[in-house]
Amino acid sequence: MSCLIRKTTGASTTLIQIHGRLTAEEVAELETACLTADGTLFLDVMNLQFADKEGLNVIKKLASEGAQVVGASPYIRLLLDLAVAV
Question: Are 16 and 33 in contact (CB under 8 A)?
């Protein structure tokens, strides 16, 4: 597995940490983790090394639905800014 998705739930927040390489194969796992989130959803991408088009699109979709994306490196931020949702 090239990606690890770790979920931590607090009193009114959910933190989902994404480690490694987020590709189309892991998108469903990330979406499932987010569907069961309680309160404010934070996507921690500090340890995200790479994301393909599908991975970037799901992060952008989740952000447009209210998730807070935190810890993005300049490289990941650039990819997110350039990704075109399909």
Answer: yes
Q: Which residue carries 């490694």 as its tokens? A: 20
> What pTM, to 2 d.p., does this model score?
0.89
Q: Position of tokens 């921690």?
A: 44
**Long-range contacts, stretch 75-82, CB < 8 angstroms, 24+ apart:** 76/45, 76/48, 76/51, 79/51, 80/56
Compute the distance between CA of residue 42 and CA of residue 78 in angstroms, rounded to an integer: 19
CATH (residue range 3-82)? 3.30.750.24
- The CB density around residue 56, as the number of other CB atoms within 10 Å, is 20
35-67 pLDDT, tens digit per residue, is: 988 899 999 999 999 999 999 999 999 999 999
